[in-house]
Design goal:
Blueprint lengths: L13 H30 L5 H11 L1 H16 L8 E2 L11 E6 L2 E7 H6 L6 H6 L2 E3 L5
Parallel strand pairs: 1-2, 3-4
Antiparallel strand pairs: 2-3
């Protein structure tokens, strides 16, 4: 009989299980809070429709006051090179730097050193040693 609980992959790693459990509890708590706060305002405090709407609006106030202006501010900062990782077949030929490849049931990666150095990124020799393939020329 097949088990309903997954047995392979990340399910055997305790650190992943802790992260997954914590994120699940956090998301569950957030969803309960989103439902419970207006419900408590209505049932316990006899809040009107306007008061519940105002309460819901106030929940989003930090997003409006901090996140949106911070995003605008960050967009105006000078761009820094971003390490681009992908898994499509021609990823490295189209400007990608690291491409993941599944080979023999294992995840391996290829590196395009030329794309990385052209963006000001330096690849460590250890990273290049464990890469499956290295494309492009490094700095002269």
């Amino acid at each position: 009989m097949r088990s309903l609980w997954p047995t392979g992959g990340l399910w055997r790693h305790p650190d992943f299980l802790k992260l997954w459990s914590a994120e699940t509890v956090s998301q569950f708590g957030s969803q309960v809070g989103q439902l419970a706060l207006p419900l408590v305002a209505i049932l316990v405090l006899d809040a009107s429709a306007f008061e519940v709407a105002a309460l819901t609006t106030i929940e989003f106030l930090p997003f409006i006051l901090f996140t949106l202006p911070a995003g605008v501010w960050v967009d105006r900062l000078p761009r820094r090179p971003i390490l681009i990782v992908g898994e499509s077949d021609d990823f490295l030929q189209h400007g990608g730097m690291i491409a993941f490849v599944i080979e023999g049931g294992r995840v391996r990666f290829d590196v395009n050193v030329q794309n990385a150095t052209s963006q000001g990124l330096k690849m460590s020799s250890r990273l290049l040693q464990v890469a499956r393939r290295i494309y492009g020329k490094g700095p002269s």
